[in-house]
Amino acid sequence: MIWLTQFLCPSRHCAFGAVWDDETQSRDEIERDLRAQTRAAGLVEECGICGAAVTPEHRALPGMTMEQALPIAKELQQANLASRALLDAFGLTRDSQRARRRDTEN
Ligand SMILES: [Zn+2]
Question: Measured in angstroms, how far is the CA atom of residue 93 from the centroid of ligand 1?
């Protein structure tokens, strides 16, 4: 079975996630891998939009193959990154507000 795991805040903003196959990974393994990748990227487990903590949510994608699910997930990721860039540009995210405070303090 193919799964979508997303680390979501209570407002359901997705901080990070992945599509994975339970024939090759477990829920614990994908959570551990995603957390390690987040730390390695210098990020923390919180929502960059609202600042809330994120927790993992796993959803099965019945009837989907990895070859079908991956392009859809990548397309959604690009759309989310574009939305996020717009919110950042307008100063509407927690991260952009923090950056602005740092700039005015220096
Ligand atoms: Zn959020």
Answer: 9
Where b means 16+ CB within 10 Å and e means fewer, 37-71 reads ebeeeeeebbbbbeeeebebeeeebeebeeeebee
Q: Sketch the domain layout of the chain as residue ranges.
A: 2-105
24 Cα–ligand 1 center, Å: 30
CA of 12 to the centre of ligand 1 (A): 6
> Which tens digit of pLDDT belongs to each residue from 51-99?
999 999 999 999 999 999 999 999 999 999 999 999 999 999 998 998 8
